[in-house]
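User: Show me an example of a complex going from sequences to structure tokens.

Assistant: Sure. Here are the input components:
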Amino acid sequence: MSTSCFADRIGDLIDLTPAERRSLVRLEERSRPLKRGAVLVRENDLQNELFILTRGTAMSYVLLDDGSRQILRFLFPGDMVGFSSLVYQRATETIAGVGDCVVAPFERGALTGIVTEHPRLSALLMATNQMERVALTDRLVALGRTSAKARVAAILLEIRDSRRAADGAPEASFVLGLTQEEMGDAVGLTAVHVNRMLRQLDDERLIARENGRVTLLNEAALARIANYIGRFNGIDLGWLPAGR
Amino acid sequence: MSTSCFADRIGDLIDLTPAERRSLVRLEERSRPLKRGAVLVRENDLQNELFILTRGTAMSYVLLDDGSRQILRFLFPGDMVGFSSLVYQRATETIAGVGDCVVAPFERGALTGIVTEHPRLSALLMATNQMERVALTDRLVALGRTSAKARVAAILLEIRDSRRAADGAPEASFVLGLTQEEMGDAVGLTAVHVNRMLRQLDDERLIARENGRVTLLNEAALARIANYIGRFNGIDLGWLPAGR
DNA sequence: CGGTAAATTGACCTGGGTCAATAAATGTGG
DNA sequence: CCACATTTATTGACCCAGGTCAATTTACCG
């Protein structure tokens, strides 16, 4: 079966040529399972493999000397993983499964071919890099300058967005798929305090919870609290060269 | 005069071909002054220009509704600025001068040519994007999981690194060029608390201060406190295609 | 059905924020 | 070069958001 999760992801933004699509499909030829909690890449390991996550949710994180963990990002199907090995010999972050996942590994060298033969794809890779960078800066702002309540609201909206249905419509009700400890490690809080903030949002009827499923009862209010900025609108890839 | 600050920056990593160098020089043909405090790009403005900072120090930041500011990064000569406009119509962050600066503006479309004609340069752009991304994640870790003292130590080391002499040797003594408020806005603290942490580092003889000049008296201890990771070593661009 | 991971909650503590006053540095016009 | 105005730096007093610790409870799993 010749599919590409990455292509599916960016399919909304651009019409790929058959040759481009073939190149992308080739990146996902191989596949490797990654169990919940299992580590795919360990920080500081030598590494020249990249991955595309094809199924499940994963995360990247850093561990500090005192044992605390900062989760850098959550990874969803179609996400590129381990791109820092384009620059650094050793992994800058650990990659692990949040739930059971499947990843498609490929060699760094595979990008050489793509960059050489498909200028538009390299432009597209730059574009997706920028989207990731902006997601990181959004979180940096949250950690640096917003309250615990805002950060918890923000991560709920972030997870909600990652669960957009195939038709692109976000669902107000979804399975979190994260423990409260993971949420805390992502937004710089303790699990205990995440729990208190969830309770508060619950008490205020902004969300409802039942067994790991969350329903956003008042998205407008949550968005306001969270300083939420939808990054789905206003995308413009007008500078891309023609596809080959 | 045909120079490229960007080329100078990456010159250590790679030998550019004459054609590659010409393409990069062309990006910096124009130049525009940017005074201390002046805004080059305002968040949310329509924007399809990119820049390379050629002189001085600038910064990018986001303002929140309550008036607080999160500085996302400091920019130094050779840094690319405003790349999020490769994806978003409206600027995702404000760019302003920290001191007096000079920037070289160029059109988004200029990248189309580079990507098409110089695969190795597009690969190099991806690589520099990754370096910036890693710098962002390092700061994310600092904000999410380290103490005020650690963050202040970290920003001192960051500024120190940005001041590396032409020969690549970092100097222990340098001019900060930032107010304590700017430092705080970068690492998620108030100016008051930045001051207290500087005093503490001073009292512990880890640094010395005189009129905006800082001397790192014990870099090893500072690095330990700051959870510092030097990102200058271990760089490997072995996957890059041949230059044209 | 026992056993472990995850969620909850209360009691208490502290790192960093807030507010306010002062001093030092820097800049400006004349 | 001076007098004044504006930032910036510094410090103290006090407060609170979020951390820590510990005890239960609930959910999940073979």
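The lines above are the inputs; the final block is the predicted structure for all four components together. Residues 111 and 217 of chain B are 44 Å apart (CA to CA).
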